Amino acid sequence: MTFKIRPLTERTGSKKLKRFKGSLVSLAGVVGGDVVNQYGQRIGKLADLVFRWDTEEKYPPLTGLIVKVAGRQVWIGAENVAQLKPDKVLLNNAKLDLRDFKPRPGEVRLSAEVLDHQLIDVDGARVVRASDLYLSPVGEQIRLVGLDVGYFSLLRRLGPRQIRTRPTPDVVIDWATIQSFGGQDTAKRNVRLSANRHELRRMRPGEL
Questions:
Q1: What distance in Å separates the CA atoms of residue 168 and residue 150, rounded to the nearest whole number?
Q2: How far is C-alpha 177 from the geometric centre of its chain's CA atoms?
Q3: CB count, 10 Å around CB of 107?
Q4: Which entry of 20, 61, 83, 112 is 20 to 30 Å from 141 by CA?
Q5: In what helix (H) or strand (E) does residue 78 lie, and over which residues does it extend?
Q6: What's the 3-state SS for 101-149?
Q7: For residues 47-75, b (16+ Cβ closer than 10 Å) or e, as one string?
Q8: Residue 65 contacts by C-beta under 8 Å, 6 or more apart in sequence?
Q9: What is the pTM of this model?
């Protein structure tokens, strides 16, 4: 699967990420955190978050979690997620059907397949690397809202866990300008931009 950023002329009126201020969750920070049920009991460790990719929605919705439980990678659907916090995931159900995770068409694992991957523009030039991704509740769903390409996020990820969980939006691209295309060949997964490097819609820290 490959990805691109739509030409900005197609995204007129796209809302600034300022609407998500105070609710951003860092993907790099939450991965590795605890997954706990409604009674505070630890189920396992968060290995990845899976989002629906083949959608026309501006911000892709969360479809489920990949959780490490007793040496297995199991699947927990988004309907079981009560809250996504910066350092952990809270579930709304103590009785879960912990199925082994199996990749499905139209979905993407953010940590494994997008984080730290290169963005490539329409001319084939490598532009930036995905330093982090930002998630936020929108209505009743958790959605992918921004792509951080700043250097500070890379430095933050090298620090202790209490620092890694704090979003540090420095240079962020509004995910409303990004869409996926291509097939399921994981060997060729990258991020492709349909605009050149001068046209990327980047958000300043004050807009977040």
A1: 9
A2: 14
A3: 16
A4: 112
A5: none
A6: CCCCCCEEEHHHHCCCCEEECCCCCEEEECCEEEEEEECCEEEEEEEEC
A7: bbbbbbbeeeebbbbbbbbbbbbeeeebb
A8: 35, 46, 47, 48, 49, 50, 75, 76, 78, 81, 89
A9: 0.77
User: Sign of the C-alpha dihedral, residues 62, 63, 65, 66?
Assistant: negative
Nearest to 170 by CA among 12, 61, 17, 46: 17
Q: How many Cβ atoms sit within 10 Å of the Cβ of residue 7?
A: 14
Mean pLDDT by 10 residues, the chain (208 residues): 43 49 86 94 95 83 94 92 95 83 88 81 59 90 88 80 77 72 42 49 46
Cβ atoms 134, 75 nearer than 8 A? no
Structure tokens at 161: 């866990």
Antiparallel, parallel or unpaired: β 88-91 and 172-174: unpaired
For CA atoms 18, 165, 47, 141, the dihedral sign is negative
Q: At 194, give phi and psi (nearest 5°).
A: -90, 0
* Coil, strand or helix at 183: coil
